[in-house]
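Job type: complex structure
Entries:
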Amino acid sequence: MAAVFRAVFGYCFLVLMVRVVGRRPGKQMTPFDFVLVFFLGGLTLTPMVGNDRSLINALTIVASIAVTHFVLVWLKQRFPAFGRVLDGTPLVLLEKGQWHQRTMDQLAVQDQDVMAAARDKGLERPDQIEYAILERNGEISIIQSSNKS
Amino acid sequence: MERSASSSHQTSPNGVPAGREFSGEIQTIMASTTINKPVEDSIAKVNDEIAVGSDPDFQRRWLRFEHGLWAVFTLIVVLDLLGFFGRGYMAKGTARTNDGTLDVQYDRVERYSTPSIMTVQFGPSAIRDGKVQLWVSEGVIKSLGAQRVVPQPASSVVGQGGILYTFPATSPPFSAGFQLEPTSPGMFEMAMRVPGGEEVRRKILVMP
């Protein structure tokens, strides 16, 4: 039974940590961010498994995490406020030629990250971007300026 | 080539490709049970032109929460470095009896399933007839999970809510070490005494 509690606690703690440490997954993920993800995962795994190396323990832990994940997803769907807590909301990083510097500093997003997303769209300069939006999944969406030159 | 292509797309009288009538029925049933919801202007817009769904108020509140959480994380790291969660300076404790028979060095805070050593030093008055006897409470054995005693006792007798160990000892200083590995988290009591001497009794917190 303790394994179930450890698994649920470990999963929820990791969700919180990843949410707090930063929203830089997806394309914005650098090797530096990979270290964090693997390190956090590895460190959480050891106390969750404990000394019990049985197959049933592994199955119990996997099932516990699956159920916890399902419950969180359901809560997210049912209560939009909970979804905001878990995933955050989209944030505008660049708006009509103005960087939202405070938002970018708070989220540790640099203008190079925005330009990387812009280049994916075939844009070359910041003035060709109407809006850059950091999405809930960590991707940066680019809305092209209508007067692209 | 064209003929084979057209033969593979033969249709039934109702226009459904041959062999797909059954799946067509399912699609019809599903379509009839689909609940449609009109598109509403429910996503918050930026500059009244692009539906982003951002929530600056929520973001401000979340950042305040995050700052609080960072303070908590920093506090946890500092407390851990100081040893408040075990295995550090503040966790070390010493307990002595007034009659000088025992001097116990132990950890006030232990960690679940993590090995540690509790050292018991015996005073000269504890050595009698070339041997030392030490009674240790059951809590040390069961809850704190005493795995091994060094040196090996000559005998160990269960009784009086604990175990009475007898060690051969010729001259002071003499000490014994208990390798502990707590079996569950919680607050547990540790007690030990030399028969006829004062008792050492302390509470030990085992962190999960």
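Summary: The first strand of chain B starts at residue 45 and ends at 46. The first helix of chain B runs from residue 2 to 7.
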